[in-house]
Each structure stands twice: as structure tokens, then as C-alpha cells.
UniProtKB/TrEMBL annotation:
Species of origin: Cnemophilus loriae
Lineage of origin: Eukaryota, Metazoa, Chordata, Craniata, Vertebrata
Gene: Cmtm8
Span of domain MARVEL: 31-163
Keyword entries, A-Z: Membrane, Transmembrane, Transmembrane helix
Name used for this protein in its record: CKLF8 protein
GO cellular component, one term: membrane
Keyword Transmembrane attached: yes
């Protein structure tokens, strides 16, 4: 009797769903070539300088520098987080979040609090406090104002993006 050479295969819905849902994250390297992307990288690099310059001193003896450290570290961590979200295009996978509004609130609050921290930093730097830490504190004050201007720029671009989204 001749044998049939027909082979029948079936796949379960579990493997079909698994292969469909395990796609890789997208990577948007073009984001770093935009002005907001460049500002974000600058915020990360110079924000790191702000808090490391202060962290290398006896800042804990002066409450004003504790505030500057809090703002610098807090927004540095959040900026790294948002850079990862934008670079991996995670925001496209979570459409329920109003990302333009989130970006505007984040950059606006970073601008305001960094401006306050930069003013506090600059007003707290005197040779009377500690000659040993004077240069580090003065440099951190300068970089805090530069980071503040970067957040101001990103606030502007976030506002333009938010405004164009609300007009549509």
C-alpha cells in the first residue's frame, strides 16, 4: 500500500502571539541631530558637571548647596530617562500619555527650578565660606546657568510642539 507524504503542521495561538509581541525596540538616532536632542545631551553632560563639582566638596555643611544638588541630580536622572524614551521611541508604544504636554511640563519645571538653583548657587559662592571649595562652587554656578538656558530652549521647543498639537 503506498504511503502518503503529506505533513500537516499547526501552530498554537500562544506562539503566534509571542512572535508578534516580541519585536525589538526602535532606535531613533536622528533624534540626536535635532536641536531638542542636542540640548538634551548638553543638559545631561553639563548637568553631570554641576552636581559632580558640588558633590566633590563639603556641600552638606551648607543647606543652599544641598538644594542645588537635589535639583541637579533629580533633573539629571529624569533627563537621562527621557532621552532613553525618545531614543527608543517608547513614546510611540504608549499613545495614552500626552507626551507633548509631559515634555512641556518637564522642561518648564526644570527651567524654573534650575534657574532658582543656579541663582542660589551663585549667591552662595563666596571666598568667606571655604577657600578650598571656591573654584568648584563657582564652576558649578556657571554650568548651572548654562544648563538653565538649555532647559529654557527645550521649553520653547516643547511649547511649539504642544501648540502645534493642540491646533490640529
Amino acid at each position: 500500500r503506498p504511503r502518503s507524504h503529506t505533513v500537516t503542521t499547526t501552530s498554537s495561538s500562544f506562539t503566534a502571539n509571542l512572535s508578534a509581541s516580541s519585536s525589538t525596540l526602535a532606535y531613533d538616532r536622528e533624534f540626536l541631530r535635532t536641536v531638542p536632542g542636542l540640548l538634551m545631551v548638553t543638559e545631561i553632560v553639563l548637568g553631570l558637571l554641576v552636581w559632580t563639582l558640588i558633590a566633590g566638596t563639603e556641600y552638606f555643611l551648607y543647606p543652599a548647596f544641598g538644594w542645588v544638588m537635589f535639583v541637579a541630580v533629580f533633573y539629571w536622572v529624569l533627563t537621562v530617562f527621557f532621552l532613553i524614551i525618545y531614543m527608543t521611541m517608547t513614546y510611540t508604544r504608549i499613545p495614552q500619555v500626552p507626551w507633548t504636554m509631559v515634555g512641556l511640563c518637564f522642561n518648564g519645571s526644570a527651567f524654573v527650578l534650575y534657574l532658582i538653583a543656579a541663582i542660589v548657587d551663585a549667591s552662595s559662592v563666596t571666598k568667606d565660606l571655604d577657600n578650598h571649595n571656591y573654584n568648584s562652587w563657582a564652576a558649578s554656578s556657571f554650568f548651572a546657568f548654562v544648563v538653565t538656558s538649555c532647559y529654557a530652549g527645550n521649553t520653547y521647543f516643547s511649547f511649539i510642539s504642544w501648540q502645534s498639537r493642540t491646533l490640529q
